[in-house]
Amino acid sequence: MRKGAVALLVILSCLMTGCLLPQDAVLSPPSHPVQGIDILRPPGDVFALLLDGNTLWCGGVDGVCAIDTQTRTVTIIVDAGRPMTYVRGIAVDHEGALWFASERGLVRWKNGQATWFTKQEGLPDNRVNCVLVTRAGDLWAGTWSGAAMRTTGGWTVLGKRDGLADDMVRVMLEDKGGSLWFGSYVAPAGGLAIRNASGWQTFSTAGGLPHNDIVSLLEAPDGIVWVGTGFLDDGGAVQFERQGDGWQPQRTLGKAGGLAGGKARSIYVTGDGTLIVGSEYQGMAIQTPDGFRVLTTMDGLSNDEVKSMVEDANGNLWCATRDGLTIINRQTLLNVEGGTS
Question: Which architecture, in CATH terms, is 40-280?
Fold first, then answer.
């Protein structure tokens, strides 16, 4: 076969199969960049953020690193003694130890020393999706096979038989009243389960949710709990409010209501009360007086999948994405919120 024909076949194959750019490929710059948006790499693909003073802990595909938010430099790369990949959750306990939820187990890290917890140490599953430390100091690990609470004698595991929407636990939250929220990611099954003093509440598409995959949970400063749901471009952000001893959904925001995409991949409320919702692959939506302003890679984001967000001490918004960290400087964020940028 002639070389020209071979080249043509390669090009056609790429068009048909959707060849991916390598990780270090040079991409086109934003066409309409918003001033005051910066990108930090490494890290690369980031899932979870935890701010501790001026130190930002970042968990992702390749493990965990720490960043100084003042100098914006990587200061620590965690060595857990063995590969620690796909870190989707980070928490700090009352003793100052960090806990990392990874696909290979749960890791306690303090003073540079790592301690692993897997099925061998009593967890129901090595695949840990999230980790939570309650105000009382209880440690919870959300796994593919239940929610496990650490006890002096090992682990106590809750599953669907105990009140969860499904054994698979993707996200967890403790609200200000002490209720525990558990979200699964096994649609069309699963949904949301809330454990409070009076028992359990469960919610699914049959009871007000736009989708049974629960991907984010956030309690806003005003006490409202936002539940992010969805898969790809389906789903939405659901606002829950307390009613009596329980909680009920009040409204749902979706793509038709101004969000960047259907799936509410991440949800954040700033210190001044602005709602921000990240999508799966269509950028992020920032609340303004006239609705929502959507920012994408065309505006300067490092990637259009926004997985987690947090504000630093100076009010800058750090966004974990599939390809690095995006930092929206405080004044830029205020301009976007006010509809002037």
Answer: 7 Propeller (2.130)
